Structures are given as C-alpha cells and as structure tokens.
Amino acid sequence: MDTGQNSTWCVGDVLKWTAEYFDKKGIDSPRLTAELLLSRVLGISRLDLYLGYDKPLNQEERSSFKDLIKRRAQREPLAYILGEKAFWKLDFKVSPYVLIPRPDTELLIEVVADEVKNNMRHEHRIVFADLGTGSGAIALSILTEIPDSFAVGSDLSAEALSVASENAFLNSLCDRISFVRSSWCDAFSSEFKFDFIVSNPPYIRSDVIPVLEPEVSVHEPLSALDGGDDGLLCIRRIVSSAFDHIKPSGFLVIEIGYDQGRAVSQILDSSDLCDGVRIIKDYGGNDRLAFARKRNPSV
C-alpha cells in the first residue's frame, strides 16, 4: 500500500487492497480482518466505515494502518493486535501473556451452568475455582451465569493475573472474584473446599506445538499450551490434587484435546476420590471436556 504524500487512498480503496493482500498471505477472514483493523485506526465502527466509504485517509492514519497490516501479515493474532477478544457474553482484554479465549471453550460454561442449575443442591453461596485462569474469561463468564456465586482464579503467571484482574474490573465483577498466584491447587489451604473446580490447562503435546499455525506456536504463551510429551502432564497434576479441594458431590470439569477422552478417563478412573466420569464432546463431535464428580463417602 503506497503511503506517499501524493497518493490518495479512501476507505473503500484501503479495504479492498488490504483484503486482497491478506488473502494472498493466507490470513483467515481477510475482509473482516481488514475492517476491524481499519476501524481501530480510525476509531469508528465497522458500519461507519461503509458510511464513509469515500473518505480519504490522511498520512498518519495510513501509516498507522500499514503498521497493523504488517503485524497481522507476520501472523500476530488479531486479538493481540486489537488487545481484546469477545467470549461468551463479555469482552476481555488479552495480551501475549494469556491464551486467547476460544469459542470451543464456551461449551465448558454451558456444561457448568446446566450442572449447577439442574443437579446441584445448595443452600449457600457457590464458590468455585478456575485453575490456570489466564485472562479470567472462564471464571468471569461462569459468574454471569450463576447468581451470587464467587470465584477464585489461580495462575502461576503474575502477568496473566494482572490481565485477569483488569478484566474483572472492566466487567464489574471485582467483588465476586479473587485471584491467587499458584501452580494449580498448590496455594489452597487443605481446609478450604470448593463446590466445583474448572480448568482449561495446557494439553497439547510438546512435539505438536512447532507445527501449529504461527499465530499459536509463535505468539501465544508456551506455558498455556505445552502439556508435555503426551499432552497430559498438567491434567495429571490437576486430577492428583483437585478432589482434595472439592466438596462431596461437587465436580471437576477440564477442557481436553480432541482425541484425549480415553486417556483422561483412565486418569480420572484411577482416582479413588471421584466417580461419574464422562467425556463430553463438542458440537463437531470431538472430545472437549472431562467431567467427574467428587465421591460422597456417606453414600
């Protein structure tokens, strides 16, 4: 895109050129990406882009837009460039310190909300934990579905906890969530029990990460992706300790890889603290969640 002083580029021209450029570069949703980036530069909505289709861009706007085009062409995720990502019913700040929330993970919110509504009897305020909370997207979304609940989000990354705290503030949920720096359940007192625990841990095999799309393998935090040689390292750690912190008849829900259902079922079945193990598939028919209930010793 020529950004010289003597060239005139209108909104329509810029969008057309950028969409074609992104398409050649193999960028997903090239037109939509161009619109979102230009909207950010101009500080207007996508609708306003079309209302001002013939509006020329000044030199500063063209220069700023060119910088964003270059970043996306180098496969930096759009969410990191924009600094935000919509998930469930909320908008979240994201940065390279946190995993970008995926639509597939929204199934976890659905399952938890249905379980609490239909199968959990409670006469007290529900308190749950989100292990490896990252941006806080899971915990904060669950809070919107369960009135008067309270969440504890744990993460080993201080930078991730800072992002999660900001998201709690931006979504007016600060008074319903607390954050703690911890590797999984390590920081939790043995006396403290949650009604349920959720987690979207790293579950990708180490040898698979280098062949993923650059948006993931190069730009997203390795600590939020790498599940060890078989992808199950963090899942084993969670299962080994989570049920010590769940009330009887409470439950654990973990997001898993598309082909990990059988292996994760075996890990859960090996624990003498849980039962009711089931693997929940996503709408594409792939393994997505592992569910297990804390065994009630009185039953």
Account of the 3D structure:
With 299 residues, the chain is of the alpha/beta class. It folds into two domains: 11-74; 88-294, Vaccinia Virus protein VP39 (Rossmann fold). Helix content is 37%, strand content 19%. Helix 1 crosses helix 2, helix 2 runs antiparallel to helix 4 (59-73) and helix 6 (106-119) packs parallel to helix 7. The chain is elongated, with a radius of gyration of 22 Å. The termini are far apart. The model has no long low-confidence stretch (mean pLDDT 95).
**Average pLDDT figure:** 95
Question: What profile does the largest beta sheet have?
Answer: 7 strands, mixed
> Which regions contain 5 or more consecutive residues with pLDDT less than 50?
none
Q: Using the 3D structure, state the CATH architecture of the largest domain.
A: 3-Layer(aba) Sandwich
State the order of secondary-structure elements, H for helix, E for strand: HHHHHEEHEHEHEEHHEHEE
The number of helical elements comes to 11
Query: What does the overall shape look like?
Result: elongated
Strand content: 15-25%
**Count of discrete structural domains:** 2
In helices, the fraction of residues equals 25-40%
Q: Structural class given helices, strands, pairing?
A: alpha/beta
In CATH, the topology of the largest domain is named: Rossmann fold
Straight-line distance between termini = 70 Å
Which homologous superfamily in CATH is the superfamily of the largest domain? Answer: Vaccinia Virus protein VP39
Cα radius of gyration in angstroms: 22 Å
Sheet with most strands: strand arrangement: 5-4-3-6-7-9-8
CATH C-level class of the largest domain: Alpha Beta
- Extended strand count: 9
